[in-house]
Amino acid sequence: MERSGITALVNRIIREYYEFGNTTDTRDLLTDDVIAFGVISQYYVQGREPVLNFLADSYRKVEGVHVKKMACNEIETDQGITVRAAVELTSRNRRHSTHRLMIMFRKEADTYRICGINVQRGFASFLYNLNYDRLTNLYNKKAFCRRVNEVLAQYPDTEFEIMRFNIARFKVINDLFGEETGDKLLRYVSQFLTSIQLEPCVYGRLYADNFLLCYPTAGNLREHLIHSLQMLAVSFALDYRIDFYFGVYTVKERDLSVTTMLDRAAMGLFKASRNGIIVCGEYDDDMRENMVSEQVIVNNMNGSLERDEFIVYLQPKYNLNTEKVVGAEALVRWIHPQLGFVSPAKFVPIFEQNGFIYQLDKYVWEKTCQMLREDIDAGRPVMPVSINVSRVDFYSPNLVQVFEDLTAKYNLDPRLLELELTESAYVENPQQIIEITSQLQAKGFVILMDDFGSGYSSLNMLKDLPVDILKIDLRFLSDSQGVENGRADNILNSVVRMAKRLDVPVIAEGVETQKQVDFLRTIGCEYAQGYFFAEPVPLDEYRNLIQGDLVVEQKVPRYAEKNTEAVLTLSSQLHKLMEELRQVAPDKIAAIEKKMKEEAAALW
């Protein structure tokens, strides 16, 4: 090789190597003692074949890049010529990087041959970026999949699991505490994973708060990892509850691509995060069919909202003493032209998972306010209507403003729009819920605690959260057969008495039998909602119902005033029987009534 063509040769060799992996021209130019080395010792090799192997191995790590720009500079040295090359590369995912090479030529006889190849810092950085996540220093997806393939091939008789896990409500952590805190939490998790140094295990980060693991199934390693990560969450210094959800796929079919294995682990993760009770979901064959069904729901949700295929139904609430309607709860029903009636039990959990529930809730709130305004303008009876506020809704930074704007837009008394929140929302983020509900109450809104008793923080919630009305969870009534039978009866009795002492009205929801109604009356519960009285009905049916039921004319019907005198609450059947017996034995009946009044008063 003559000196005049060295720079042009280097330009061609570098371009063909990085874009095509071609080292044919390079082989004939290498000296027998040629060396190749990088910024760290593991890149050092010597000899023609080792150098060629080094180049081939390096090419596999950067395969698929394109040389966008290159600049070469030729320098004369004591031994010959050194060409410095700055090469700007782009990868398939459009990631840009520049690395620098030094190609050293030594003059032998009348020609120049390559005696050294120095891969400088830029090249090492480029290789690192292709294989590792910058924030966490864990494998990226491509490198994780490649390494898992290697491990599965290396241990053919060992059973492995692929785990995918994420941080529950990670976006909320970023919003509340800033992205710097979110990044700190991600690094905290990654440092734990790399510190345990289990072999043969592979760790990676897919994106955002999604992490990947591959590990042997022996020794209950899954349980140990989950427990350790849960303990790690507790140890992170943040005034917020941190939870993890896990999805697992046990590698049974090794001919599957690692990407497919990750997809199956993702199905398990979706099961866990959607369920909210289990922390780890394991893939099974039925999940694929469920995922297809859920995808149909996701594909149709936006179009249905635009076409008003979500319909607001109203379920009345009744005063147990008068059996008159005192209000209603707005519930959403989905009636799709092709899918037909879609159960809320199917679409609500999916919408809560993907965040669409906030858009749907706002739609229901708007429709409810429109209905109230229409009734006022038409001079029809108007009762308060409660709307559901999901735990996802509370993560909206302008939730209070949304309700203020709605009542102002439709010129409504805030007391007409009652807000139902679930106890689980409070448990997840109590301080934020307390602040928001206090602001809403200050604006005149009535706050109902739905599903009270379903969580583990009921008493703490009553102590800290200023709710106006409690709604008792149906599970308290599941075995109610009378005051003297069943532990659930005693618990419900105590809850109602406690609420009365706090001057908080109680609504029993899910009431379906006369026996439940009688029991609720005997313990002093004054309000009920359920299929025994009325199922959720369309707007016109609800209007007809309250039009014929209203006996007291008032613009905003209220729940019973606090500290009222106790009344005898007998079922209609018992009352009729007592009247018949009174004609036969008036003295004995009078004594019985006196005793029951005393017992009823004791409940207060």
From TrEMBL:
GO MF terms, alphabetically ordered: cyclic-guanylate-specific phosphodiesterase activity
EAL domain mapped to chain residues: 294-550
CDD domains: EAL, GGDEF
InterPro entries named in the record: Cyclic-di-GMP_PDE-like, EAL_dom, EAL_sf, GGDEF_dom, Nucleotide_cyclase, Rev_trsase/Diguanyl_cyclase
A family per Pfam: GGDEF
Residues in GGDEF domain copies: 158-282
Domain of life (superkingdom): Bacteria
Cleaved signal peptide residues: none
Protein known as: Diguanylate cyclase (GGDEF) domain-containing protein
Lineage: Bacteria, Bacillati, Bacillota, Negativicutes, Selenomonadales
